[in-house]
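Morning. Coffee machine broken again, so started the prediction first thing and wrote up yesterday's gels while waiting. Chain of 422 residues, entered below exactly as on the submission form.
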Amino acid sequence: MRRCRLLNTKNTYYDLIVIGGGPAGCAAAGQIAQKGYRVLVAEEHPVIGEPVQCAGLVSPRTLRTAGLGADLVLNRLYGAFVHAPGGECLTIRGKKERALVIDRAAFDRRIAERARGAGVEILNGARAGLGGFLPEAVNVNIGRRGREFTARARLLIGADGIGSGVAAGIRAGAPAQVVRMYAAEVELKCPEQRMARIFLGREIAPGWFGWIVPVDENHARVGVGAAGGRSKHPLLYFNKLVEAYPAFFKGMKVVRRTGGAVPIGPIPRIYAERTLLVGDAAGQVKPISGGGLYLGLTGAKLCASTAVRALSTGDLSARALAAYQELWEREMAEEIKIALAHREIYLTLSDPELNTLIGFFGHSFWQYVISRYADIDYPSLLAGKLSFARPWAEKFLAAGLQKTLGRSPEAKTKEEAFSPGF
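Came back before lunch.
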């Protein structure tokens, strides 16, 4: 394993510096280091994977993509109960496992350990930021244990999450929307251990949803999200959720509080001269669920391949690195576009309309369709089928007409009064 004496020198030169030691950043770093390049990861938190800011609910595909074992799996889910604000409940249950509840902190550490094994130098507790560009390198300012110093690299990857300083430094643009979340790990009886619960409604989760994800029969991960500038602190919605469904939260004891925010919508530009973005910093997040692991790992692979090519040729110009965005859009742009379209329709629904929709999908035919085609990584598989459901199809038709004909000022005012603040 290659080691550097970073703390004993004022300036240290690398082929690559990654700011952010989450799964996407470490995965990209490890893949690049395997090709023989000198790589540094600067992670602001003292321990990789902490604090946990994720429900740790992933598809089986995500675990395979990460190349990690089933020992990280704490529970396997086969469906969900979707609760409408008026009391209607849609049950989606099948014989095939739909999602895995994983030890998220251990997941992050495994990817970091693999990167270390490939030769990556990881600095924990290091606050890093873009220092400026030189003709042949980029400077990164690092503060750690009361000391400040500068490291220099041929290439920089920003994996520093939502509100990325690297993205701001290269004027990459911002996501269209942000969802703020309040969540907790709790002690809670979960009689339906293999089923998640999703809660909808403007009063408890404007622009998003609430959830209970069982870890085992006595523990769960619970939370709620809120979107839009007019929304209140997510803790207030969390309390409303608990009050609205006392039967499901009876006897709940909070073990650890978590939270955070997720970007919704792509970052306009995920590259610049000598710079790439990956993971949440690049907006590589599912617009419907907010999950970022699968998309982040997919982005890391494409980011790493572009970086290796650029480092090997010595061409680290924005023009050369634009290949990364082209690869990303070829891989995931259509899925994200479809998911965003469905999310936009969801945002227009009133609580009475949600009640009607959940009741409609409760018919056995649509339960079968949803169970058969639902895929949390690729929503287009189900989206095409739902387009034939009359209530949903009518919403898409109305939205399409609005975009084609334009909306009157009166219609815009009415929609804005109804919206959660976008």
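Confidence is low (pLDDT under 50) at residues 1-10, 401-422. Going to sketch it on the whiteboard this afternoon.
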